[in-house]
Amino acid sequence: MQIKSPNFKENARIALHNVELQEALGQFKYGFPVNRANAIKRLPEFDDLRDEARDLKNHIIENLDIYLEQFESKVIENGGHVHWCRTGDDANKAILDICKQVNAKTVTKGKSMVSEEINLNDYLEKNGVQPVETDLGEYILQLRDDHPSHIIAPAIHLNVNDVSETFHKHHKRPKTEDPQALMKEAREVLRKQFVSADVGITGANFLVAETGSSIIVTNEGNGDLTQTLPKTHIVITSIEKVVPTLEDMSLFLRLLARSATGQEFTVYNTLSTGPKREDDQDGPENFHVVLVDNGRSEMVGSEFQDMLRCIRCSSCMNHCPVYGAVGGHSYGWVYPGPMGSVLTPKMIGIDKAAHLPNASTSCGKCEEVCPVRIPLPKLMRHWREKEFEKHLTPKAVRFGIASWAFFAKRPAIYRWLSRGSAWFISTLAGKKGRLKKLPLAGGWTDWRDMPAPQGKTFMDQWKAKQKAGE
Amino acid sequence: MSRAEILGNIRQGLGRQEATAEQRDKALARIAAHKATIIPKRSQLDRKGQIELFREMASGAAAELIDLNELAELPSAVSTWLKQHDFKSLVSASDACLNELDWSPLGDIQREQRIAQSGDVASLTTSMAGIAETGTLMLYSRPESPTTLNFLPDCHLVLLKESDIVGSYEDAWNLVRQNNPKQMPRTVNMITGPSRSADIGQKLQMGAHGPCVLVIFILKDG
Amino acid sequence: MTSSRRLTIAMTTMPNNRKNPKVGLFVTCLADMFRPSVAFATVKLLEASGCVVEVPEKQTCCGQPAYNSGDKATTADIARQTIEAFDGYEYVVGPSGSCIGMLHYYPEVFSDDDPWKQRALDLKARSYEITQFLTDIVNFEQINAAFEGTITYHDSCSGLRQLGVKDQPRKLLSKVENLTLNEMEEAETCCGFGGTFCVKYPDISNRMVSNKTQYISDSGASTLVGGDLGCLLNMAGKLKREGKQIEARHIVEILADMTDTPAIGEAEYELAKAL
Ligand code: SF4
User: Fold this and answer.
1) Is residue C79 part of a domain?
2) What ipTM was assigned to the predicted interfaces of this complex?
3) How far apart are CA A344 and CA A116, in angstroms?
């Protein structure tokens, strides 16, 4: 995916003027967040589960090498293969190699954000293998040559009409705007792809060290068809997904659906362990796990380690007022919202992604709803610190902070400055109590009035009163 | 090469070399113990309560429930359901408990035991467990019960014995371990209601890629 | 302009059976510069609750602009200055969840072996947002105020999520005579102020504050009340720009019965006209 994060401001401006997107976002906030709140009401243990999940993830990270090796040995024991990939390129090559080994022409794909992260589709296509996205949202996006704007509801930025037009154009069937009919149409078209694909690629929500299993969590059942019908099943996933046991996995599953869509449980939670057994009548003959690092191992021991706890539930973006205003595409890369504002700078560089951790009011809603209690605002601030240390912070901002700091560190002069500013602005406002325009504060007064100061500063008035012996 | 680099990075981040035997043993012991974490109180009920909860949660997830007083009623119940929907065929799992039944009530509805194919309208399988906590069925792959039966047909009919209803996921994992002492089955499916998606205009629709309908025949043997 | 008639009831000093704690007022830049009446109202409430209030000369800003811009060195400089300024006070109280919240971040600025770390922790333990202090620390019940009208309350983010300010302001407001509270939808959603955010990303901030003003007017209230001047200036500025007839006030003005000053962004003469 082309990196558009440096243009965040422009992307956001366009998004704010996109009427249909704004409608979709307006509707969105009455979906997942409301369902989540209701689901939590029905589970009094929810917050205890979150504490437990945070601690367990921390334990896993402390022992990550051990659990990964254990997982690997179990996969091999079950007759599967594990491919360790330091970079996205390594992973793309590993997957293409597997496809070539089995002479694959087409692959079906379940939803995988890691595959978006490494541009897998483009890579396969360039090398003669046709990937077909099967998650309904991803499928729509693939037809439109578009990208996900949300990590679990990838086509959230589109409305029924968009889908209707896309299907009409590509399926060459009569146009319909009935969502049920549209879904049926996709079901029929994709059926053929499922059955004829040579390889099925899915992501994984978790990897279980105890059994060497990978698990996918879906509502549609596309992932299951993807991994059951073709002869080869490739799991593309990342190193932080490993959990010790099935019981540990259950803890995260209890949090995942409720935090994501607000469901009690996702419709299909499917564990895959190795290739099919000798007497099984269906299932893949080959099972591969492609373990992607792509910068994650470097986060261990760094100030961003907490981010490795993320279970990709999307709760942080579902509740983020900035995401809710500008949508996922504005962030300009794969991962949007608060989690993306922490991950993206790590993956594409803070120089390109500097806007993301800055475009936050630090309101803390994301941390409040994160099932594994990731301190997202703090991590975003760490990126601002990195940016500042590397002198990437825009000159004007640096200059502003430096001049302000000069005064703030000198109380007497600060008093004088406050007095001057209060006097200046209130004089400008005259008797109106507010200003429609204020020099150097266009960002403010383009959109709202500036309430005028009352006049004298508190410090001056207080001192005068003390003197007068009040 | 990648492997060594990744593990090396992790260890560097953790500020240690390769894990000591003691560290490794501790982690492996944790796996061996596979202790449960917090199990919500919701499902810690007596048998009757768990059965009630299962029914409530499964219907809440849009599964259709049909009661059976004895297993012998299954063929006619299945037949009635299929006829209601005007279906002429059924693909079935070949578990002994299904094969022992008299399927003549199906009449001219064709019953085949095979993997599912594109175009199949209905399938019938058993289930290993019903999990009360969320009304979830647990199924696993084996020669008699191929996984495609659970996903390809438009309607999935499932037999669940009340005596197989458990409280929590953890209870179910223990059953999986008991039933498969040597190795996990290739596929374990947890199924909660029929397939669905809200990817088109944020409107929830049933029947995305998996079955549009999930019918649970509950055998009241509990 | 609403036609609320403000009753002036002299506030009686509350007899405090415990000793009279010495409180350092953290004025906050915005109260100092934009709305001294907020600081005076805070002093009035603190004194009424039996505290001895002083205003340390050496205080300036809490350091948030530097902290949020990733400038650790400047943040530490300002933290040290603030810690020193408030040395010796039993409590530090301010009319802002955001600024007091910043004082609570000071320990994070220093490394564990830095002697300032302990002093920062000590300051954190003594610092309170005003409604929290009145409710949780001194159990101040004697609110002697009246307010004719319907208000709605905005929960500012730092106070709410960092300090746990939620019930305290509502509890205090419930003691104000004649006041009706109409909760708005999404009272806990950020108003889009965010310090430098609102000038760095003005159009995103505008979308957020526009949502907010919609909720505010939907609540049917004639006065918006909150505990942070930054957010209030933002929302009041937007309400005014949209021409909505809704006033904005800091909660302490109402609790201290000091609503004879014009509301935020209102002019003297408008008030005169209305009365
Ligand atoms: S950061 Fe937390 S809330 Fe956001 S996706 Fe990850 S786990 Fe979910």
Assistant:
1) yes
2) 0.97
3) 13
Give the residue from C62, C56, C49 showing the smallest Cα distance to C21: C49
Does residue A222's CB lie within 6 angstroms of at least one atom of ligand 1? no
Residue A314 near ligand 1, beta carbon < 6 Å: yes
Q: Is A380 in the pocket of ligand 1 (CB under 6 A)?
A: no
Residue in chain B closest to A302 (alpha carbons) equals B13
Q: Quick one: closest CA in B to A32, which residue? A: B202
Q: A65 vs chain C: nearest CA distance in angstroms?
A: 29
> What does the pLDDT read at residue C4?
39
In this structure, which topology does domain B44-219 adopt according to CATH?
Answer: Rossmann fold (3.40.50)
Inter-CA distances, C64 with A55, A397, C72, C89, C105, Å: 30, 14, 11, 22, 10
Q: Please tell me which residue of chain A has the smallest CA distance to B143.
A: A280
- The Å distance, Cα C271 to ligand 1 centre, comes to 48
Residue C207 has its nearest CB partner, among A325, A389, A422, at A325
Residue contact A456–C36, C-beta within 8 A: yes
- Please count the residue pairs, one from chain A and one from chain C, whose beta carbons lie less than 8 angstroms apart: 204
Q: Note down pLDDT in tens along chain C; length 275 residues.
A: 333 333 333 333 444 445 799 999 999 999 999 999 999 999 999 999 999 999 999 999 999 999 999 999 999 999 999 999 999 999 999 999 999 999 999 999 999 999 999 999 999 999 999 999 999 999 998 999 999 999 999 999 999 999 999 999 999 999 999 999 999 999 999 999 998 899 899 999 999 999 999 999 999 999 999 999 999 999 999 999 999 999 999 999 999 999 999 999 887 644 444 43
String of DSSP letters for C219-262: TT-SEEEES-HHHHHHHHHHHHHTT---EEEEHHHHHTT-TTSP
Q: Give the number of the atom of ligand 1 that is nearest the alpha carbon of residue A313.
A: 8
C222 and C126: one domain? no
Write the CA distances from C21 to A42, C27, C52, C126, C255, integer angstroms.
44, 18, 6, 12, 20
Report pTM: 0.94
Q: What residue ranges define each of the domains in chain A, with the CATH number in brackets?
A: 1-30+314-393 (no CATH), 65-297 (3.40.50.10420), 396-468 (no CATH)
What residues form DSSP beta bridges with A434?
A: A451
Same domain membership, residue C151 and residue C35: no
- Measured CA distances, A369 to A25, A57, A315, C10 (Å): 19, 17, 6, 44
Q: What share of chain B is helix, strand, coil (3-state, %, to 5)?
A: 40, 25, 40
Residue C269 lies in a domain: no
B146: chain A residues, CB-CB within 8 Å: 280-283
Of B5, B28, B168, the CB nearest to A86: B5
Q: B162 alpha carbon to ligand 1 midpoint, in Å?
A: 37
Contact between A218 and A111 under an 8 Å Cβ cutoff? The reply is yes
Q: Do residues C57 and C8 share a domain?
A: yes
Residues of chain A predicted below pLDDT 70: 470
Q: Is residue C265 part of a domain?
A: no
Query: Number of structural domains, chain C?
Result: 2
Q: Do B9 and A85 touch (CB under 8 A)?
A: no
Ligand 1, residues A259, A307, A344, A378: which to mutate, most atoms within 8 A of Cβ?
A259
Tokens 């599953």, residue? A253
Q: What is the CATH number of the domain that holds C132?
A: 3.40.50
The pair of structure tokens assigned to A336 is 């949007």
Q: Which residues in chain A are contacts of B118 at CB distance < 8 A?
A: 191-192, 194-195
Report the separation in Å between the CA atom of A8 and the middle of ligand 1, taken as the mean of its atom positions: 21
Q: Are residues C14 and C114 in the same domain?
A: yes
Max Cα separation, chain B? 71
Nearest CA in chain C to A360: C197
Q: Exposed/middle/buried for B54, CB within 10 Å: 0-12, 13-18, 19+?
A: buried
Domain boundary pick from C114, C137, C160: C137
**What's the domain range around C78?**
3-137
CB contact under 8 A, A453 and C195: no
